[in-house]
Amino acid sequence: MAGKIKAIVCDYDRTLTDESLVLSENAVTSLKNARRDGIKVFIASGRRLPFLLDVNERRGFADVIIAENGAVIYDPADGAKILLGEGLEELKSAFAGVDFVEVEEVIVATTLPYLKDAKEIIRRNDLSVDIELNRDDVMIMPKGVDKGSGIAKAAEIYGINRENLACIGDAENDLKMFGVAGVKVAVANAVDVLKGEADIVCSEPYGDGVKEFVQSLAA
Description:
The chain is of the alpha/beta class. The chain has helices spanning 25-36, 49-59, 88-95, 115-124, 147-157, 174-178, 192-197, 206-217; strands spanning 7-10, 40-44, 64-67, 72-74, 81-83, 102-103, 108-111, 129-134, 137-142, 165-169, 183-186, 200-201. The protein has two domains: 7-83 and 145-217, HAD superfamily/HAD-like (Rossmann fold, 3-Layer(aba) Sandwich); 88-142, no CATH class. Helix content is 34%, strand content 22%. An eight-stranded mixed beta sheet has the order 5-4-3-2-1-10-11-12, sandwiched between helices. Strands 6-7-9-8 form a four-stranded antiparallel beta sheet. The model has no long low-confidence stretch (mean pLDDT 94).
């Protein structure tokens, strides 16, 4: 499989981090080694770009950052940024000033207790959106935008075929990521539904699971 994988895509929270969201240095080191072996490394997360950019600038382990659950693609090498989705202004305008959401660069984020209220705003404004769940987090996305579409676009930009793409995750929103993966990898702490779709379920959780998979490529 080592010769087959040209890029590794990693979710951030509880995949590259532990439950307390502390980044795994074991995962970082293994991904740096993968880059030295010619494998590209993508981070794909629901988090905002500035946070992920800061994490990468301090450690330098990613070639591409896919933020806001696939809506923002950023190349740290040249600063090129792409925003995906249509109706961005309508979405942000509908939720402007609403106290239970965070309006990000593209998506709107909230939590499960406010899902019903968010759906009412969507209905009232006749918005064309998708709703993604990630454990207790809710992400309101432009229609057709998700981790899968963001990763597919990034892979296209960097000339990587789907069959050469390994995606590693832990939660429900990573199912869309699995949809574009050649190799689907779940860390040991992943939710059962993701493990059920995985080609590989790591024996180790969190960043140690990432390390386990990356090291298997060199075996």
